[in-house]
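Why run this: before we spend reagent on co-expression, it is cheaper to look at a predicted model of the complex and decide which construct boundaries make sense. The entries below are exactly what would go into the expression plan.
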Amino acid sequence: MTLIREADLGTPAIKSSVLLTVEVDGKTVMVPEGTSVMRAAALTGVTVPKLCASDNLEPFGSCRLCLVEIEGRRGTPASCTTPVEEGMRVTTQTPDLASLRRGVMELYISDHPLDCLTCPANGDCELQDMAGAVGLREVRYGYDGANHLDAPVDDSNPYFDFDPSKCIVCSRCVRACDEVQGTFALNIMGRGFDSTVSAGGTAFVDSECVSCGACVQACPTSTLIEKSVVEQGQPEHSVVTTCAYCGVGCAFKAEMRGNEVIRMMPFKDGKANHGHSCVKGRFAWGYATHSERILSPMIRERITDPWREVSWEEAIGYAASEFKRLQAQYGRDAVGGITSSRCTNEETFLVQKLVRAGFGNNNVDTCARVCHSPTGYGLSATLGTSAGTQDFDSVEQADVVMVIGANPTDAHPVFASQLKRRLRGGARLIVIDPRRIDLVKMPHVQADYHLPLLPGTNVAVINALAHVVVTEGLVDEPYVAERCEPEAFERWRAFIAEERNSPEAVEGATGVPAADLRAAARLYATGGNAAIYYGLGVTEHSQGSTMVMGMANLAMATGNLGRPGVGVNPLRGQNNVQGSCDMGSFPHEFSGYRHVSNDGVRTMFEEAWDVGLETEPGLRIPNMFDAALDGTFKGMYIQGEDLVQSDPNTKHVTAALAAMECVVVHDLFLNETATYAHVFLPGSSFLEKDGTFTNAERRISRVRKAIPPKAGLADWEATMALSNALGYPMTYEHPSEIMDEIARLTPTFAGVSYEKLDRLGSIQWPCNDAAPEGTPVMHEHGFVRGQGLFMVTEYVPTDERTNDRFPLLLTTGRILTQYNVGAQTRRTPNVVWHGEDLLEIHPWDAENRGINDGDLVVVNSRTGETALRAKVSERMQPGVVYTTFHHPDTSANVVTTEFADWATDCPEYKVTAVQVSRTRQRSAWQTEYAATREATTRIAVPAETQP
Amino acid sequence: MVHKANQIALFFASFPREEAIERVADHLRRFWEPRMRRQIIGHVAQGGAGLHELALEAVRRLDAPAPAEQGSGR
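The model came back. Tokens follow.
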């Protein structure tokens, strides 16, 4: 294994059908028109010295190292900013050029510390490389002149240092922040010799910097450098793998020294991220070695007992015997399992197989239940498949982007950077969100329309948008006639044209000005390629599935499906939401979304698994809770999911778990659910196992083991051991064998193998004989279901209503630096930016209640109450408050209700009627939590180690 | 359970009555675990208080699932 260093061709690739022939140092190459001389040279294998150029940044021409000679031209132009011309003949090495370059390097080095041997970038420094490349042997100016060598280091960011004494002011960091990340947090302050890189005149940690790492990656010296490299030294080998955070699924190089991760570097060939990253994937991986990781299996008879560390054999044997006992005592259907969107495809496939084949029932569900299950239902009903329609790169061809109920700059930051780049390039933007999210107005991005609807009124808004399309003659009639079921379309057209669906009629309920809504609808329908991107602000409603269908209706009606630049695109919350759904984690269907009652499909699985399978659907997660409280559901195996912190109405969840007799938690940490567990199986982080994740664009990417499992077994091995102990044999030697089985049993994965993934880098399903290298854009030649099906989407207000007692609407979500229940990110320095959940409240609502920024406030709902600090913010609209659910001592889900999507039971996290008031104390629930948390997580000290 | 069944009925209420009833029934068959179907069938047998008319009719069309099987899995 070696350290992977991707080639840098100096300037970005240019797309042009016109090819020009150019000769560089006698070597001929054909390149697209507009290509730089530097890139053309690199393509011939000629390396031109450079410092300010990088092929992920527009050419800048400041360092003056890349000078070349061009036949027939005077002077020595910079190769990075000079485009090739037909027949151009370029020379990159002459005595004059060498002299010029040495002169430039002398100037740089005259103001640079000569501490290469002790510099953390030693061995990975472009300045050092260039000094060697140009043959620098002396600095005629000496080192005693004016310099920046005493400039203080800014070490305020928890992940990287900024040492301006080493800066050559090439502006790569500033340009990376602008062009790659799109945050515009850095600039060059001062003029001439006084020019310095600045994070807006303040310390990095206090600046607008989002710690994506693009500037650190771009820096050619050690001016911006990871603290881990400063402290540990340079890595020596790389393992290419996939990030375990959000649904973007960024490819990373885990840069290693032995079994130690030195840093995570975004992989340039990653097709989801193209070499970019965010603060979580790039830096927040320290949880994997956090001292709170549990590395030994543990059991206890009662949840009030302390945990007892045991061997894997004893823990697995105990769990299996308990599950067998429960099934013998209470019936075959008294147990079940939960797969995780944080685990690999292979692991989720094994857990659902264990439940179906080992337990003999279909009581398997996944955490997608509480996030994107309506996406599956809604897109399947209308288009025929439970997945987003595009690849991320499709956005580069979008003319109009409609973001609904999503906050990509926080939750999907790397895709957000790509989106912002397209918006800066001229695409128009419609934002539909109760909050004024950053995309509404930020540097160089401004939404054309922000429709600030009231939580719970999505369907009314989408219907009103469609009403404008239908009644103003904006339907793409030929498209609909060719691709959609005519009877269903006519029924929908008649429904949607009714006056009660007009923007004016729904304005009172939605709070969206009718004129804005009409204008947004016209823009979406007539602005060229129009693409919808949406998040949990769509799905986590009592009409989540209806809303998904409504978006599909709108896209079909305007012809915005089936080609690049358009589509209906769910932004999946977790890394493997798509994959866990694909793998048959839902209780009613096998992998590939095929119902368990389908005799042909079930027979195929029965033959492959050599076991009879249940024909009836199993319990969903909330059904499991209800059944537990009814006394008919007694045990569950939970892999990689914290039900207590993430599911709604915490008291209901904990009562259900407490009523069970065997709860097996398989996780990295003693999470909140483990409080109610009898068996704890230590999990393996994404760095410790092989497998695959499938991201929001259906892209299957490899997860590669960088270090051995810290607890001894990868998760798939632990599941296999449990299945074997239950009496259902599993004998896989490697996750690739599990993928081979998935491919044999799942038509959309038929062409997927580890060999092909290694060869292609990643694959978007469907991947089969018809599409052997995968499918970037779905529905290109017709919808998967045949004809697109318009569904009538009646707006039905949620039963969760405000009143005098609960006059505000609470909506929940996440922020950039934390992830989901925070189990990972809370155990990293990301807590610097978000150490507690805050309640965002509009100044009017705050003033009416005498609340100041930072005050402790209590949030009451019909379900419960919790106290947290207030953040007064004009991002909110009056009447709506917002919080995150990252911290268990706040536990926003103590407040949320059990109202849920009609079709899928996805909880209505986005609409809870609450009251907010100042308080001096934590809630009773929080007080009890603080008092009991330690007792419920006690681990007994082995007798031989006791004093 | 009644609330959930009524939510389903409300979604399909815009379809022609016969189709709506069948779609509600189909949804219950495809997504509700047998013990849940047994419960709602039992509720309808008791008069079906609180159920939307379409849900009531749909539940009447469901076959009662077999009682839960005793014994171990595999």
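Chain B has four helices and no strands. The first helix of chain B runs from residue 2 to 12. Bring this page to Monday's planning discussion.
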